[in-house]
Amino acid sequence: MAGHTGVRGAGRDAEWAADAAEIRAALLRLRRATGLPVAFGGPLVGAGATRVRIGELSGTATAALDGLAVSAGNGLGGKAITLTRPCTVTDYRVARSISHEYDTPVAAEGLRSVLAVPVVVRRRVRAVLYGALRAPQPLGDRTLRAAVEAARDVEQ
């Protein structure tokens, strides 16, 4: 995923479409490599690129997460953006290590154990990939490593 050039118009649309395709492919790799039934993610958008717009979904049962804008510092994905590193929770709904602005869509999808991995290009977060279980089970090191590898593939 290349850094965005700030180009407007058709070139920018093509760039976003290419990023969406890369994210979609990474989510499929993430699900295959980790065995997680749900994966979702999207690019950072907005002034200063401080929000991830979830637009790619794989294995979801609802549209609750589609289009969700996650701000840096908020929720699990926002924490991953701020820290520029992968973050996990074993039970999203009761996790004390994150803020809970996004509990409603996460609960609507039935997600419990969740990981969020930033896609970093030239030391800047460009996207976030998520993987999740619908049960509160610890996500092991192998699962986290595989999710990080999926993000690294996008960074190239």
Please, could you describe this protein's structure?
40% of the residues are buried. The protein has one domain: Beta-Lactamase. It is globular and about 35 Å long. With 156 residues, the protein is of the alpha+beta class. Helix content is 36%, strand content 24%. Strand 1 (38-45) and strand 2 (51-53) form a beta hairpin. Strands 1, 2, 3, 4, 5, 6 and 7 form a 7-stranded antiparallel sheet that branches. The longest helix is centred in the first third of the chain and has 25 residues, at 10-34. Helix 1 (10-34) packs antiparallel against helix 4 (141-155). Residues 2-12 have low confidence and may be disordered. The protein contains 4 helices and 7 strands.
Descriptors:
single chain; 156 residues; alpha+beta; Beta-Lactamase; seven-stranded antiparallel β-sheet; 4 helices; 7 strands; 36% helix
Q: What can be said about the biggest beta sheet?
A: 7 strands, antiparallel
CATH class: Alpha Beta
CATH architectural name: 2-Layer Sandwich
Number of E-state strands = 7
Number of domains: 1
Oligomer: single chain
The helix content, as a percent range, equals: 25-40%
Question: What is the element layout, followed by pairings?
Answer:
Layout: H1 10-34, E1 38-45, E2 51-53, E3 56-58, E4 69-71, H2 75-83, E5 87-89, H3 103-109, E6 114-121, E7 124-132, H4 141-155
Antiparallel strand pairs: 1-2, 1-3, 1-7, 2-4, 5-6, 6-7
